[in-house]
Amino acid sequence: MIAIGGYTVLLPLHTATSMEIEISSVKMLYKHLIFCAVQRCRMSDDLCRLSVKLTSFSRFALPLVRISVSDTGVGSKPEDYQYLKYRNDPTLASQWDGMISLATTSISESEIYNLNLNLKDSNSAGRLTKLPSTAKNGAKFSGTEVSISISKSLDDLLAEITCFLQKMILLKIPIESRILAIESSSAYSPVESIECLKVGLKDYIRKHQTCFSIGENLKVGTGVANSSGSSQGNSQVVEAVVIINDMSELVPSSSIREQDMKTEILYFKDFVPCSIAQSSLDALTSINWKSYGLALQSVADHDDSVMLEWENLPPDFQIYIAIHCYHRQYPS
User: Fold this and answer.
1) 9 backbone dihedrals φ, ψ, rounded to 5°
2) Closest by Cα among 73, 11, 16 to 41
């Protein structure tokens, strides 16, 4: 149960299950690789770094872009990628050959293990190819680099991934250029997290305003729901922040665009932006918004982004919503 602005909302908590993930697009793939890297950092006891690198090159006169996602978290395992499934789709096939290159090591290992994974191979035993390892020469470190090569515009990819990382900043994870530094913690404090989410949403609003500034009298509602499993490591948290920005004294209504009268739901799962869970969306749409003087007109789902459109919303009001669902301690 989450209390926002005096109203109690039920946001269902999700249970993680082991299941196949069918890769249907390049965007889905690189988002998943970043998600896995973040979770490896969360499982580490040390300060971690996560980087995303784009490199253009050509192969047989075909222009390609290599996307490399690397982290200094705990090492990875080949089994971590066996549940990925390649969708037989012409568009995906024209952009990606189904190959994933993996280099990984743990702190206790003396070598960096290099592997290739062919998701197009239906035989789970034959899809993995082990390559010669690289000696660490006594160095103590852990980390993983996962790379894919795709046929897509470098500029389009850069815009997509930059937008994705900008949303990650909302959770107040320090970021510089395209390098993310993640301070991992085995037990993330909900009190600290909800404050980070609130401050991060305010910063996100400021950076994405076009013709006006944020008003001083923001109406902010926050709430946290906890679910304890059989152990502390299985407990889950759902956080929500709602901000209403009153701009009546800042700008004339004529300068407000139609899209400013809609609300994008910023949804995060385990510290990574993702598509909103249907159960959370159902909870939001079931709220009695009329008790707040609001009327929900429609819900639009476009390109992994959900927009709430309001009916007769005062032209000088904006509504922002952010939801974060995560495990307090990410399961190994």
Assistant:
1) -120, 140
2) 73
**Is the four-CA dihedral 256, 257, 261, 263 of positive or negative sign?**
negative
- What the block records as the tokens of 126 is 């034959």
DSSP H helices, the chain, are 26-42, 90-95, 154-169, 190-208, 278-285
Closest to 107 in 3D by CA, of 75, 145, 80, 79: 75
CB 169 within 8 A of CB 177: no
110-165: pLDDT as tens digits: 999 999 999 988 776 668 899 999 999 999 999 999 999 999 999 999 999 988 88
Residue 7 has pLDDT above 50, yes or no: no
Burial class (CB in 10 A: 0-12, 13-18, 19+), 138: exposed
Q: pLDDT tens-digit profile of 48-104?
A: 888 999 999 988 888 999 999 999 999 988 878 878 888 888 999 999 999 999 999
Instruction: State the burial class of residue 3 (Cβ atoms within 10 Å of its Cβ: 0-12, 13-18, 19+).
Output: middle
Separation CA 198–CA 221 (nearest Å): 9
For 289-321, the DSSP string reads GGGGT--EEEEEEETTEEEEEESS--TTEEEEE
pLDDT tens digits for 285-326? Answer: 888 888 878 888 888 877 678 889 988 887 777 888 999 988
**Rounded CA gap, 212 and 29, in Å?**
36
Helix 26-42 with 154-169: angle, nearest 10 deg:
40
Q: Which amino acid is at 68?
A: S
Instruction: Answer yes or no: are the C-beta atoms of 205 and 320 closer than 8 Å.
Output: yes
The DSSP-derived string for 171-210 is TT--EETTEEEE---SS--HHHHHHHHHHHHHHHHHHH-S
Q: What does the pLDDT read at residue 190?
A: 56
